[in-house]
Amino acid sequence: MKIGILGVGNIGATLTRRLSEAGHHVQVANSRGPQTIDSDVLSTGAQAVEAADVVTDVDVVIISIPLAKIPDVAHLIAGVPPGTVVIDTSNYYPLRDGHIEALDGGQVESLWVSEQLGRPVVKAWNAITSQSFDAYAAPAGTTGRLAIPVAADDDADRALGMALVEETGFDAVDAGGLAESWRQQPGAPVYCTDLSAAEVLAALAAAVVTRSPRRHDLAMAVIAELTADPTADLGEDFLVRVNRLMYR
């Protein structure tokens, strides 16, 4: 499969390595040019290209950039054929008044992304920390393998997203349509808590939209206080431990 990845942050870089290692033809781009992409990102066979070329002649486009930058790449996606599947890995930070989200009219963030890009999207790889994504990939069938939820309105697109999640070393869980994808965003029980497939399903069902913003605020306050001491040894799984305490 031909895959274009836009963004080489921690998640984008790991996706590039894993999917090219899985045998896909992967091309990757950032906003600064192919010459700025680290050779380690390309170590399993991916090719660095210009941003305008990353969406050319591909079956899948994965957008792994900050949410605020989504409108900036809409012109790149505009020319992508309708059959190309677009996958988004970004996250929003929920408001405090009990609403799911209020980006441009109170939409769920994933629906907002879809509107900005002018096409359907798949939501995947957003509910795992970059540390866990890099460290805990495991072969299918491994006891205790971690899982990642995948949401999309189109069943075929969601199935493709789930297949790619499996190839990156994690169980994929069907999280339904985009209107329910707030269940896998910051503050929800499934968000960055390193769960198995069965636990992910239970966490998605347990999510409460009015609770998530408050839980996220509390977690951010705890994280800010504990990380204020640069000498503190918080451990590699610090964020996951805080999220499990605050979100579940």
| Average pLDDT score | 91
Cα-based radius of gyration, to the nearest Å: 17 Å
> Strand tally, please?
8
What's the helix-strand series?
EHEEEHEHEHEHEHHH
- State the end-to-end distance: 37 Å
Reading off the top of the CATH hierarchy, the class is best stated as: Alpha Beta
At the fold tier of CATH, the topology name is Rossmann fold
Low-confidence blocks of residues: 95-107
CATH architecture: 3-Layer(aba) Sandwich
Shape: globular
CATH H-level superfamily: NAD(P)-binding Rossmann-like Domain
Tell me the count of domains. 1
Q: What structural class results from the helix and strand content?
A: alpha/beta
DSSP helical segment count: 8
Strand order of the largest sheet: 3-2-1-4-5-6-7-8
Beta content: 5-15%
Helical content (DSSP H or I, runs of 4+): 25-40%
Largest sheet: 8 strands, mixed
Give a description of the structure:
- The radius of gyration is 17 Å and the shape is globular.
- It has a single domain, classed as Rossmann fold.
- The chain has an 8-stranded mixed β-sheet, with helices on both faces.
- It is an alpha/beta fold and 248 residues long.
- About 5% of the residues have low confidence.
- The chain starts with a strand and ends with a helix.
- It is built from 8 helices and 8 strands, in the order βαβββαβαβαβαβααα.
